[in-house]
Amino acid sequence: MNSKKDSAAHIGTSPNSASTAANTVISRSNSSSANASSNKRPNTINESHGNRNSNMDALRGIAILGILFMNIFFMNDSFYGYAAHLPQIASDRILEVFSNFFLEGRFLSLLSILFGAGLLIQYQRFEANNLPAYPFIKKRLKWLIVFGLIHGIFIWGGDILLTYGISAFLALNYVNADIETIKKRANQFIFAALVLVALFSLAIEEEHYFRGSELHQQQLLDWSAAYINVVLLQLMQVGFMLMLIPLTIMWYAGGLMMWGMVLYKQGVFEHGLDRKALLQCIIVTILFSTIDSILSFSSNPVLVELSTSMMMVSAIAMALVYVHLIVKICQNSQRVLAPFQAVGKLAFSCYIFQSLIGVSIFRYAISHYASDLYMSLNRVDYFLIAIIITLLQLVLAPVYLRFFNQGPLEALWRKLVMAKSNT
Known about the structure:
The chain is an all-alpha fold. It contains 16 helices and no strands. It has helices spanning 19-40, 54-71, 90-102, 106-128, 133-154, 161-172, 179-201, 214-223, 227-265, 268-271, 275-296, 301-330, 338-345, 347-369, 379-403, 408-418. Helix 2 packs antiparallel against helix 4 (106-128), helix 5 (133-154) packs antiparallel against helix 6 and helix 6 packs parallel to helix 9. The longest helix is centred in the middle third of the chain and has 39 residues, at 227-265. Mean pLDDT is 87; it is low at 6-24 and 29-40.
C-alpha cells in the first residue's frame, strides 16, 4: 500500500471528513487549560524584547527534524512518494503503524502552531522597536513565498514554505484580535478545510502505484531525467499547490497558526497543558490513530482515504502532547535539548539543508550509481537515511552557532526584509 500521507506537502491532498472531531480536538483539549493559563500562568519570558523561549526553540528543532521522516519518502518521487512492496513486508507495516501514532502530520501541525506563535512574537517585537509591524510582517511573508517558489521549483517539489507564507496572511488578520475571537475563527477555518478536502477527495481516482508497477517504473524514469525535466515536473507540482492552497490547506494551516497565537498568549509554551487537557489529547490521539491504522490497511480505497482524515485529527492532538512534553522536559533551560534548540534557531536553513541532502542522495547518488536500490529499499532503509541526516544536523547546528548568530538563510531573509528601512 502506498501511503499518501507521508509528506508534509501532501497532507491536504486526499483526506475525507472527520471534521467535527477535528474541530473539537483543540477546543476541548485546550480551552480549560488555556483559560486557566491566561488567568493564572501568563508568559514571563519577554520575547518581544529579545529574550528567547528555549522551549520553543527545542520544539521548532524537533518539528523540523520530525518532518524529514515523512518527507524522506518523497525525496525522489515528489508526486507519489514511497512505493510499497507487494505483498507488503512486515517491517513496513510496523513502521507505518508507528508513524500513524507518532509521526504522520504531527510535526507539520506542530510547526504550523509554532509558526503562528512566532508570527505573534515578531509582530510584538516590531512594535516594541517602534517599527510598523504589519508592513514588515507582510514583507517577511512575501519573501517567504518567494523562497518557497524557488525551493519548490528548483530543489524539491514538496515545499511547505509557500504554504506557510500564504496561510500566515490569513492568521495575520487576527494578530490583534481577542483570544475568544481567534479561537472561534481558528476552529471554523480548520472545520472548513476538512470539509473542503473531503469534497476534493471524492474526485481522486485510485491509482495502482506499487513497487515495480508500470506507474512506479514511469515515475523512476521521469524523476531521474535531466535536471530541466525535473524542474518542469516540480513547476507543475508547485502550480497545482498554488491552486490547492487557497481552497484547502490555507484554512487548515492558518487555523493552526492562530491556535499557536492563542497558546502563546496563554503561556502554554512556558507552562504546558493542565492535566485534564493533556489527558484529553492523549485519548484523542490513541483513538484516532488506532482508527487510522485500521483503515489505512483496508483494501477498500474509500476507507484508505478516510484514514487520512483520522490522521489529521490525531495529528493536532499529538502535536499538543509534544508541546507539553518538551516544555516540561526543557523547562526553558538553554542546556536541556541544546542540539535540538540549535536546529530550532536555524530552522529555515536546516529545512533547506534537508532537501538538498535528500534530493542529492535519492535523485542523483542512488539514481546514477545504484539505481537497483529503488527496487529493494524499504521503510527501514528510508528511516535510517533520515536518522543519519538528523544526526548530521544535530552535530552541525551547535557548531555553526558558535561562530554565527543566525543561519545563512535566516540572515538573508532578515536582510531582504529590512533593506529599505535602513536606507
